[in-house]
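Q: what does this look like with zinc ion bound?
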Amino acid sequence: MKISRIDHLGIGVKNIEEVLPYFENVLGLKCYAVEEVADQKVKTAFLKVGEVKLELLEPTSDDSPIAKWLENGGKGVHHVAFAVEDGVADALVEAEGKGIRLIDKTPRPGAEKMSIGFLHPKTTAGILTELCEPQNK
Ligand code: ZN
């Protein structure tokens, strides 16, 4: 697979409103989009740091993966998202062929009109890894 850059860091939070002042008033970043991703039961808020984005993730339901992650003591960085240039579907197949455990066998829709797929942290040095690309490429 061909990774071109880190697209974003996913940061799990209980409440976006509560943490935004840190990112906006202290770090001076701007939240430019808030979007709910029904598929993942999260509300997301995006901030830009140069080429890289921060994706704040707030659970919208108790059975959201982020809710469970927070419940199990998760905080801060939840996942790292890499932009792939040659297709998420192919990248998932390639990763599986190299012994990586997949969370998503096929790409699914993410925030910001991205097509995304997750790799299991058990086989990726402990980093929950997201592969992503724009949906209409
Ligand atoms: Zn993400």
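The pocket of zinc ion is lined by residues 8, 10, 55, 79, 81, 130 (CB under 6 Å). The mean pLDDT is 96.
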